[in-house]
Description:
Blueprint: E1 2-5, E2 13-19, E3 25-31, E4 34-39, H1 44-56, H2 67-70
Antiparallel strand pairs: 1-2, 2-3, 3-4
Amino acid sequence: MNLQVLGAPVCSDAVLAAQSSEGERLFVHLRGDLVVGAIGMNKPREMRRLRKLLTQRLDLRRSELPQEVFGVH
Length: 73
C-alpha cells in the first residue's frame, strides 16, 4: 500500500491514507507516533481487527499496525 499525508500535521496530529492497487482505503489518525483512530476500509474484517487492536492498546504505535491491514513497518 502507498502512504500519503493528506494535510499538514496540526499539533503533531496527522491523517494518513493507505490505498492498495485494488482500491482498498483506510484513513488513520496519528498523534505523533500513536494511532488514535481509523476509519473507512473496504474490507470489514480487517477494519474490525484494527479497531479491536485500537481498543485493546491505548499506546498502539504506527509501526505496530498489522502489515496486511496497513502495509507499513
